[in-house]
Design the sequence.
């Protein structure tokens, strides 16, 4: 859920006010636009705003004066300033005075959106750190890491031993098992807990932007780099950086990551200087990094640096005794979040039997989604089999899953169109990965979808690209 909802724009140019109102409203923000600093202060006095986006140069009351008076009256307000060419020194002065960041005109509207997203992430981290300092909410959301199984207990004992030291940890496990939550628990139990925990999915950022995101960049380092930018290593300084899907890092970024682990220093893109950082790195992967090393897709020296200690998170099918406990926690959570007038009390015996027998290929994430659906659909105090997703109770189609010689799915007694489409999609993805020997970039081209969409589908279906490559 977005932390920032209300945004006040202050700029004397009508075109800027109009464009930002359209763009930010389209992104789901509640936007109000005014023409100068005095009008902005009056508006801030009438309602609570999460963010003020203000031009530096305005009539009657300039952006610097507005910044100081607004933050004095509203200490929690996040301020982003805009500056035209020639007023950059004022923008830097505004940042020194407490503004979060500045954007230089002319700018692309998505630049403002990107800055707001980064400011929102910073606010989320600050709130999390305040909760940890105050001993408030648990570090791991209740219901995600619950369980009494021996396999989960062994993982949590391992986490307790590793948390106090700065050893680099590699977390392995299938999609949906809760690898990020284990990383957050390592951070929360460590001496670094009051400082930032920063998470990044290496597979979700385009390769050309990844180094800039991780290490930052200098002004003018590349096209559109109008300002210098801090990277995620700098944001996590003193705390923990969680690199999810670390196997997706391109080789140039792997070299830089190795330097950080060896020397404790980074070099922003386009800079000649190096910066010292104190960051604990925790990485996660659902791929076999050892096999990637054999293929030449992952550096062997980096592999050994990351894999000092391996924490394997067991899939849900290996701890089925935890399913009822997790289901109960999710039911109570969704009773609150969905504002049910008559709360669901729990699972019927039949539903619990089905859930305990199911393999849960999507692991805890799939269970969470199933419980949200069930709480929405339940008419009485208990969840019934009919409230569960069809894949848990529908009779499977006879014959093997796959395609016939004509390339169409086998048709059995189950005539669910949605299920057939999912099975067809999964079979095509597996076939493409086999054809390309596990190369996801080429597989995405074969399937005529984006690389990011393919990564999402691989996670959704719990597909192991390396295993498919071995079947080729």
Sequence:
């Amino acid at each position: 859920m977005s932390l920032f909802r209300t945004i006040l724009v202050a700029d004397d140019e009508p075109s800027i006010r109009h464009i930002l109102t359209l763009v930010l409203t389209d992104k789901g923000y509640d936007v109000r636009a005014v023409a100068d600093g005095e009008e902005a202060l009056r508006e801030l006095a009438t309602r609570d705003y999460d963010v003020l986006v203000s031009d530096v140069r305005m009539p009657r009351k300039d952006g610097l004066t507005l910044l100081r008076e607004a933050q004095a009256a509203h200490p929690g307000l996040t301020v982003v300033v805009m500056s035209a060419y020639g007023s950059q020194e004022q923008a830097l002065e505004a940042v020194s005075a407490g503004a979060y960041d500045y954007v230089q005109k002319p700018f692309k509207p998505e630049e403002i959106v990107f800055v707001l997203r980064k400011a929102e992430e910073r606010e989320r981290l600050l709130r999390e750190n305040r909760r940890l300092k105050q001993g408030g909410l648990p570090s791991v959301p209740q219901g995600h890491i619950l369980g009494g199984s021996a396999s989960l207990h062994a993982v949590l004992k391992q986490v307790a031993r590793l948390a106090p030291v700065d050893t680099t940890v590699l977390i392995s496990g299938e999609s949906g098992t809760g690898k990020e939550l284990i990383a957050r628990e390592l951070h929360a139990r460590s001496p670094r807990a009051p400082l930032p925990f920063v998470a990044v999915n290496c597979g979700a950022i385009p390769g050309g932007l990844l180094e800039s995101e991780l290490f930052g960049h200098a002004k003018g380092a590349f096209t559109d780099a109008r300002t210098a930018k801090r990277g995620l290593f700098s944001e996590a300084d003193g705390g923990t950086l969680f690199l999810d899907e670390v196997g997706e890092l391109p080789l140039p970024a792997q070299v830089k990551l190795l330097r950080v682990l060896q020397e404790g220093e980074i070099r922003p893109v386009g800079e000649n200087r190096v910066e010292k950082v104190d960051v604990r790195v925790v990485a996660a992967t659902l791929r076999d990094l050892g096999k990637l090393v054999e293929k030449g897709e992952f550096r062997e020296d980096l592999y050994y640096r990351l894999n000092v200690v391996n924490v394997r998170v067991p899939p849900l099918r290996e701890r089925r005794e935890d399913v009822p406990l997790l289901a109960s926690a999710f039911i109570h959570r969704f009773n609150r979040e969905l504002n049910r007038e008559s709360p669901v009390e729990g699972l019927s015996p039949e539903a619990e039997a089905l859930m305990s027998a199911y393999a849960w290929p999507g692991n805890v994430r799939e269970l969470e989604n199933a419980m949200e659906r069930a709480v929405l659909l339940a008419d009485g105090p208990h969840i019934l089999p009919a409230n569960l997703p069809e894949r848990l109770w529908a009779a499977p189609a006879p014959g093997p899953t796959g395609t016939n010689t004509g390339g169409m799915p086998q048709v059995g007694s189950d005539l669910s169109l949605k299920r057939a489409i999912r099975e067809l999609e999964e079979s095509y993805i597996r076939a493409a990965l086999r054809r390309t020997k596990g190369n996801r970039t080429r597989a995405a081209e074969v399937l005529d979808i984006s690389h990011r969409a393919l990564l999402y589908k691989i996670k959704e279906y719990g597909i192991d690209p390396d295993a498919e490559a071995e079947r080729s």
Notes: The two ends are 42 Å apart (CA to CA). DSSP finds 20 helices and 14 strands in the chain.
